[in-house]
Automatic annotation (TrEMBL):
Coiled-coil region(s): none
Gene3D superfamilies, per database record: Mur ligase, C-terminal domain, Mur-like, catalytic domain
InterPro entries xrefs: Mur-like_cat_sf, Mur_ligase_C, Mur_ligase_C_dom_sf, Mur_ligase_cen, MurCDEF_CellWall_CoF430Synth
Protein name: UDP-N-acetylmuramoyl-tripeptide--D-alanyl-D-alanine ligase
Keyword Glycoprotein: no
UniProt keywords, alphabetically: ATP-binding, Ligase, Nucleotide-binding
Domain of life where this protein originates: Bacteria
Domain Mur ligase C-terminal: 252-372
GO molecular function, one term: acid-amino acid ligase activity
Domain Mur ligase central residue range list: 40-225
Species, as recorded: Mesorhizobium loti R88b
């Protein structure tokens, strides 16, 4: 026991020393960079805002790096050390996530942003924050980190975000549907298969925008990125043309069309409670020969299992069939009549859902896959174009199946494959040093 404790202590010392060295290197990289650093935070919309803003800035011939999807302090340190160090980026756009109280402070201190964008405040990570006020307080840290010549871009429609303008020591620009917004959004429309359209009004200008998104609620992150790009000098013409070709990120309301089969909307990256009705409303506005909703795991939320029952009542009004999958599938409280006539199906695993969909699919029907990431419901859609052989129900990976890249490999073979990858990478490094090829 003493030996085990000693080994653990030594390992912790090594890890701590390695972390401090990497943190020092990251701070040096940040200090030596001439880029404009932009931090994006909010309970939802961070990834889309970050990616689109980088896309718009690049359209203005800027050299841009974006740190997206993985938004922890560890990821930021790695990005600064490996990508930003000794580079000539004009802009660095980074997601800033909040996993709990005190998590944004170290990231803001390291990032030292000149621009901060806040999309919204919602009660995500309920077990860590408990109240909206706590979430807002944590998000505000990024705004407070701005210098006096910095720029805060805030969603004025959200009272918690709007309040961040009070006491801000830098210039504040607001956007939203409210009349008092510096950039006012109007005429928001979307209904799949039609794209999302909206207008932006500021000063004496009006800009009509179109984006290939299936849901109208995406106006918020798209507007946040648009306003930021305009404030940073990108022309309205470039913004409009670049937005027209910008597609949703993987597993974030991504449209996935199969040849001769159904069309999927994959929304499986996260499923906080506030997003459930938004996704259902998207389906109610969509036009298709048949509409089905597959609902998996709702993310960390306040309240009881009644949330699943409430979601079912909304979903059954928007779709011809609702399928619940996973450990909470029994919480729908669907009536016996809906069960008997097929309006509702309760299925235990994603693999069984995939098999059921393949048996009953109609060409051109629209199927929404909505769940938190742990179920990896995207496999239901991927199975139409790939030989999906990994149907593990609890793989423990937060990344999507395509990011993992092993969904065509049985789960029990993942570890040997990963070890083989590391071996190949190690030999690649040695080959560069010695000029030898790795053994077959």
């Amino acid at each position: 026991m003493v030996v085990v404790k000693l080994k653990l202590a030594l390992r912790n010392i090594r890890h701590g020393a390695r972390y401090r060295v990497r943190l020092y290197r990251a701070k040096r990289a940040r200090a030596n960079s001439g880029a404009t650093f932009i931090g994006v935070t909010g309970s939802s919309g961070k990834s889309t805002t970050t990616t689109l803003l980088a896309h718009l800035l690049a359209g203005g011939h800027a050299f841009v790096y974006s740190q997206v999807l993985v938004n922890s302090i560890t990821a930021l340190i790695s990005a600064l050390c490996k990508r930003v160090n000794n580079s000539n980026f004009d802009y660095v756009v980074s997601e800033v996530g909040a996993r709990g109280k005190g998590s944004i402070g170290p990231m803001a201190e390291l990032l030292r942003p000149s621009v901060a964008i806040v999309t919204m405040v919602r009660l995500e990570h309920f077990s860590n924050f408990r109240t909206l006020e706590n979430v807002a307080e944590e998000k505000r840290v990024l705004v407070d980190a701005l210098p006096s010549d910095g720029l805060a871009i805030l969603n004025v429609d959200d009272p918690y975000v709007k309040a961040m303008a009070v006491g801000a020591k830098c210039r504040v620009v607001t956007f939203g549907m409210s009349d008092g917004a510096d950039y006012r959004i109007s005429d928001v429309r979307a209904g799949y298969p039609d794209p999302l359209t909206f207008k932006v009004h500021w000063k004496q200008n009006t800009l009509a925008l179109t984006a290939p998104f299936p849901a109208d609620y995406f106006w918020l992150p798209l507007a946040a990125a648009t306003v930021s790009a305009l404030e940073l000098g990108v022309s309205p013409e470039i913004v409009a043309s670049r937005l027209e070709t910008f597609l949703p990120l993987q597993n974030r309301c991504e449209v996935f069309v199969t040849e001769g089969g159904p069309e999927f909307i994959i929304d499986t990256a996260k499923a906080p409670w506030h997003s459930i009705n938004l996704a259902i409303d998207m389906m109610s506005k969509a036009a298709a020969r048949r509409k089905r909703i597959v609902l998996g795991q709702i993310s960390d939320y306040a309240g009881s299992s009644r949330k699943y029952a409430a979601a079912y009542q909304s979903a059954r009004e928007a779709a011809d069939q609702v399928i619940y999958v996973g450990d909470n599938a029994h919480r729908s409280r669907a009536g016996q009549a809906d069960r008997d006539n097929g309006r509702f199906r309760e299925i235990r695993s994603p693999k069984e859902v995939s098999e059921f969909i393949k048996q009953t699919a109609l060409p051109g029907e629209l199927i929404l896959l909505k769940s938190s990431a742990n179920l990896h419901l995207e496999r239901v859609a991927l199975s139409w174009t790939h030989d999906v052989r990994c149907w593990e129900t609890a793989c423990g990976k937060e990344e999507g199946c395509r990011a993992c890249g092993l969904y065509e490999v049985p789960f029990e073979q993942h570890r040997p494959r990963l070890l083989q990858r590391r071996r190949v990478r190690r030999w690649e490094f040695i080959r560069h040093l010695l000029g030898r090829r790795p053994p077959l």
